[in-house]
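Data card: per-record layout.
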Amino acid sequence: MNASLSSFQSAAAHAKAWPFELARAVLARVEKRGGKGPVVFETGYGPSGLPHIGTFGEVVRTTMVRNAFRALTGDAIETVLLCVSDDMDGMRKIPENIPNPAQLQPFLQRPLTDVPDPFGLYPSFAHHNNARLRAFLDGFGFDYSFRSATELYRAGVYDAMLLKMLERYDAIMDVMLPTLGPERRETYSPFLPISPTTGRVLYVPMKAIDAKAGTITFEDEDGQDVTMPVTGGRTKLQWKPDFGMRWAALGVDFEMYGKDHLANGVVYSRICTALGAEPPVQFFYELFLDEQGEKISKTKGNGISVEQWLRYATPESLALYNFVKPKTAKKLYFDVIPKAVDEYFAHLEAFHRQNPIEQIDNPAWHIHAGAPPSASTPISFALLLNLVSAANAETTEQLWAFIGQYLPGAGPQTHPALDRLARYALRYYEDFVRPAKKFRAANAQEAAAMRDLADQLDRLPREADADSIQTVVYDIGKAHGFDPLRAWFQALYEVLLGQEQGPRFGSFVAIFGRDKTIELINDRLAS
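The structure for this 527-residue chain is written out next.
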């Protein structure tokens, strides 16, 4: 834990950011049991498809709550973040975004740890997806402990709770049956046996249960009745009872889940209570949506992957996108990236001017576990994108040629954060901005204003800064009767840059250069 967190302990008591609100609830829970640790923060993962950005979001948000808890307690109480993979679930359908999907057809309903890896790299499909999950979590430096549900079941970690499930079978059924339709009630069982003949996860009714012997009896797929123990990985639980049982077995103190679980939260809690444990502090977050407003799905592979985001932007911007308004549904597609990058740097720069109470509510505090770096960038990502566009730049060296005129003596060594952004900007422009460019001709009013702008830029003193240039642009728009004034700026973007939105135009001119801007205006009006 970073030592700087302890210096914020007094401010943390008054912090308004949502991770602190949740951390205070967890602390109250822990104090009720005498302040004893470890305090278990848990997050679950379903490895039915390749990990996606929503999976990352759950871990990063839970980490933020854990960090807030550690700040509240001065790191005096041990904490652990468990990342549990539900890899004993049966494969119910074949994901669309894998190679050779037909080869997995014979393994439908087998536990995911028994399904071959279609990529041929790991012992099973679950092992492959778990490795992908762990690789990108490790890449972000998360402090977590990974748990495989298959290992937890087969190693006997859950055995005591599974036996208790048998002892309190009627109470568990009283919780579950009201949540089911009439037909399913007739055949429902919280236990899903693993067929000893086919290895498939079976959704079958129980013919008998024996709490004293710790066994269940059911009809196997070959028509024969089988009696076997519920322990040792021979059975697993339906997902709702599994949720509550896991809380009880692992002593979970905090868990968050998506809004799609919200209605079932009370079910998980009642299962946990029936097993003699106190349900954890819970928090639900809204789901990420793709560009069409549909829920992001691992099996569909829609939306943005973590790898894709990191091709075009900083990891910190991804963490920020997850921090902001977790209870608000947000579309997650490539257009959101530039804004997230610039907002991150704005928060980071503000942090070092703030007092401790303001700092601890700053997203940068939560992104960096209380110790944000001093890195900053004098040029926004949005502005870099427009510089790439106007200059037709293909390399960072070309961008630095312009930047160096605006910031004498600046370069990759003096401004490494800006150099990273330049590389991201080149990739983002090439893949998303260039294909969408659509220039239009200026109308008579716009053309006259742009000629006036070129003339006044030429007459400005050489030492005129971005603010002075912006004032000139603003005054020209008013003088030429643009109402609203934003129509003037939109015309500049659409005619000169081929896009509907753009940067603060005075800053763009200052970096691109007045001579180059005049040349750009004349060329676009001539064309």
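Known properties of this structure: The domain at 1-155+286-366 is CATH 3.40.50 (Rossmann fold). The chain has 23 helices and twelve strands.

See the next section for split statistics.
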